[in-house]
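User: I'm new to structure prediction. If I give you an amino acid sequence, what do you actually give back? Let's try with this one:
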Amino acid sequence: MRTLPLSSSDPEPLFRRPKAPSCEEAVSEIIRKIKEKGDAALVEYAKKFDGQKEGYKIRVPKDNIEKSARKVPKEVLEALRFAAKNIEEVSRKTKPNDRKVLAKFANITQKFVALASVGIYAPGGRAAYTSSVLMCAIPARVAGVRRVVLCSPPPVSDAVLAAAYLTGIDEVYAVGGAQAIAAMAYGTETVPKVDKIVGPGNQYVTEAKRQVRGNETDIDMLAGPTEVFIVADGSAKANWIAADMIAQLEHGVDSAAIVITTNEMAGKTVEELEKQVDDLPRKEIVMQSMKNSTILTTDFADFQAVADAINQYAPEHLELQTKANGKLLALVRNAGAVFLGERSCEAFGDYCAGSNHVLPTGGSSRFSSGLSVSDFMKCIEVVEVKDAKALVKASAALGRIEGLEGHARSAERRLGK
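Assistant: Good question. You get back a string of structure tokens that encode the predicted 3D arrangement of the chain. For your 417 residues, that looks like this:
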């Protein structure tokens, strides 16, 4: 991990995100096989990548989903219910409603309609992202999506199945990786084709989402390695800063933490990192991901310089722990989610604050937003003309200048010509 002075004039070289090796060809081959062989290819990949043996079933029986909810510890089930309640409350209060504009010559209505089907991907492996099921399924249900299916690598964890049960998902498929994305995009004998695929995943999952996105299937976003950007002045607590860095870095060896703080706080934070990582179960991962991380030092005399650095990096998660959070927040233009105040740790957003943790990464918060209920709806504009006569002249003129005589005549017929 580097410690460098903040430069407001040219901050970009300070922020070098790690680049994963290309997996485009490997993913293309997986998608091709799924399209050609369907279930047979899914079984083949489950044995090859997930160690499944004879008797492997693509679909998880409905009874197993309910049974798994009984297997998880009581405190986990209670935590899932608590998180689900908060996520649902925010989703319901932010659900878009139809909007009607009474303009001079026409009434324009924006009609919001739920998607018919959605597929959720929940990663497995070293960390089963139970919370991702809630983050994706609940906004979809609130939007009114009728069919929600879930794919997760086999064996699907009891906690993931419990989250599926609590959110009303009874179609769960023990399929992981790029093959799961391909199956949901194109359909197989067992896995249904869906209109949109959402949820986090590794580089193979992300590449698969990139390749299947098109006319028939949409995706939420192309998510890369996770990241946190923490701005903390001398009033912050070094042990909290270090803890929040570790919480992000333990996701994977390609995770990153960027901190802007004072010289004194930088030294204290490094000391805390060394203490807190010592007995961490995922210590090796954190030690590796620290290589992607940077601490930038400043005296906070120039808030615009701090904001410029934030907006240049365009972080997935931004934590503001300063005496002037309001002033700094007003200058922030690029961030997936902002956690305001030292008590608002990013881990709360990951789980149960009510916000969504499926967020734009890799600088894409410059032009995109986190997942929300509106991502599971589409907007249809309804046009009802009140005064056709007033619109004819302009429509005909524009039609003819574009070389579209049929357009012009179509408009003019509204006058009886």
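You can read the tokens as a compact description of the fold. Here is one thing that stands out. The chain has three domains: 24-96+115-219, 225-366, 387-415.
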